[in-house]
Amino acid sequence: MTPQRISHYQVLRRLGHGGMGEIYLAEDTRLGRRVALKFLSQELQADAAARSRFVDEARSAASIDHPYVCKVFEANEVDGVAFIAMEFVEGTSLEERLMQGAVPPPEAVRLASEVAEALAKAHERGVIHRDLKPSNVMLSTDGHVKVVDFGIAKRMSAPDDVTAGDATREGVTLGTPRYMSPEQVRGLPIDVRSDLFSLGLILYEMIAGVHPFDGRNAVDCRIAIVIEPTPPLPPTTPVPKTLHDLLMRLLSKAPAMRENSAKDVAIALRDVFTRSRPVVELAAPAPSIVVLPFVNRTGKPDEEYFSDGITEEMIVRLSKISGLRVMSLGTSLHYKNSGRQPAEVGRELGVGCVLEGSVRRAGAQVRITASLTDTASATQLWGDTYDRPAEDVFAVQAEVAGQIVQALRAQFPGVGVRTPTLSGPQPDLEAYHFYLKGLHAAMRATPDGFQQGWKFFRQALDLDPTYARGYAGLAMTYARAGNFGYLPGSDAFSQAKAAAHKALEFDPNLAEAHAAAALVAFYYEWNWPAAERSFLEALRLNESYADAHQYYSLFLASQLRHDAALMQARRALELNPLSPAAGANVALVLTMAGRYDEALEDIEKLRYLHPEFLPGHVMLASTLLYVGRCDEAIGLLKQWSWTRAHLGWAHALAGRRDEAQAIFTELVDANYRGTFDLMVLAFLLGEVDEGARWLERAIAQRDNKLFGLRALFASPLIPPAIVSHPRVQALVARIGPPA
Question: Which residues are marked as active site?
Answer without folding.
Answer: 131
